[in-house]
Design brief:
The protein is of the alpha+beta class. It has helices at residues 82-86, 155-221, and strands at residues 7-10, 30-35, 44-48, 59-68, 73-80, 93-99, 107-113, 120-127, 134-143. The chain folds into two domains: 7-143, Jelly Rolls, CATH 2.60.120.200; 155-222.
Length: 239
C-alpha cells in the first residue's frame, strides 16, 4: 500500500520542515509531515481519515499544507468508499492535487465533497526525486456543508433583515413618487410660462401689423395733408 509514513513533528529551522506549525504559529506546535529523505523516488505515504456519513448539503474539507524543496513531490486528496475500495482502488477518486516547491510557508486549500454513501478521505504524498524536501499538513477540518457557504441565519435575524429591507424599499418608492409629483408641477409651470410668452409675442406681432396697416391707410387717404389748405382751391393763374 504505502512505502513510507506520515510523522508527527514540530517546527525546525535546520531542515526543510516547517519552522512553525499553523495552529499556534510556534516552533513548539505540532503537525504531520513526510520526510522526503527516506525512501525512493515515487514512494507513497497514505494518511486516511475516519469514516464520514453522507450529508444532503455535502462537506467541506479545509486544510493547510507546506511543500518546500525542489522536486519535493506531489500531494493529493482522494475520496473513497466501500464500493470503490472493494474493487481494488485503495486511493479512490481524486479531488485535489498540488506538486512542486511552494515556498517555506503554509498555504490553505478547501475542497467541496458531495457523496451519497459513507466515505473517507485519503491524503497521498508521492515522493519526488529530490531527497531534500518535506511535505506537511496541519489543521485539517471537515464541516457538513459546502465550502464558502454562509452559516445558518437565526430566524429572528432573518425577520429583522426582511423588515429592514421592506422599509428601505417603501421609503425609496415614496421618495420616487414625491420627486415625480414635483417634476410634474415644475413642468406644468414651465409650460404655462412658455404659453404666456408665446401669447405676448403674438400680441406684439398683431400690434405691429395693425400699426403698419394704419399708417398705410392714412397715407392712402391723404389724411397727412394740412386740413387748412385745400389743393382744389389753388387758382390756375397762381399755378
Amino acid at each position: 500500500m504505502d512505502q513510507t509514513d506520515w510523522l508527527r513533528g514540530t517546527g525546525s529551522e535546520s531542515n526543510t520542515r516547517p519552522p512553525v506549525d499553523h495552529t499556534t504559529n510556534s516552533s513548539s506546535g505540532h503537525f504531520v509531515y513526510v520526510d522526503s529523505s527516506v525512501g525512493q523516488w515515487g514512494d507513497q505515504a497514505f494518511l486516511i481519515s475516519d469514516v464520514l456519513q453522507p450529508s444532503t448539503r455535502g462537506h467541506c474539507i479545509t486544510f493547510w499544507y507546506h511543500m518546500y524543496g525542489d522536486h519535493v513531490g506531489t500531494l493529493r486528496l482522494h475520496i473513497n468508499d466501500r464500493k470503490t475500495h472493494d474493487t481494488g482502488n485503495v486511493e479512490g477518486t481524486l479531488k485535489w492535487e498540488e506538486s512542486g516547491n511552494k515556498g517555506k510557508q503554509w498555504k490553505e486549500a478547501s475542497v467541496s465533497i458531495k457523496h451519497d454513501d459513507s466515505f473517507w478521505f485519503v491524503f497521498v504524498y508521492q515522493k519526488g526525486k529530490n531527497p531534500v524536501g518535506d511535505v506537511a499538513l496541519d489543521d485539517v477540518v471537515v464541516v457538513p456543508f459546502p465550502c464558502y457557504s454562509e452559516p445558518p441565519v437565526d430566524p429572528s435575524d432573518s425577520n429583522h433583515d426582511t423588515l429592514t429591507i421592506g422599509l428601505a424599499v417603501g421609503f425609496t418608492l415614496l421618495v420616487g413618487v414625491i420627486v415625480s409629483i414635483l417634476l410634474f408641477i415644475v413642468n406644468r409651470k414651465r409650460c404655462y410660462k412658455e404659453n404666456d410668452l408665446m401669447n405676448a409675442e403674438l400680441l406684439d406681432q398683431v400690434s405691429t401689423i395693425d400699426l403698419s396697416d394704419c399708417n398705410m391707410s392714412e397715407l392712402q387717404s391723404g389724411s397727412f395733408y394740412n386740413t387748412t389748405f385745400d389743393p382744389a382751391t389753388i387758382d390756375s393763374s397762381d399755378a
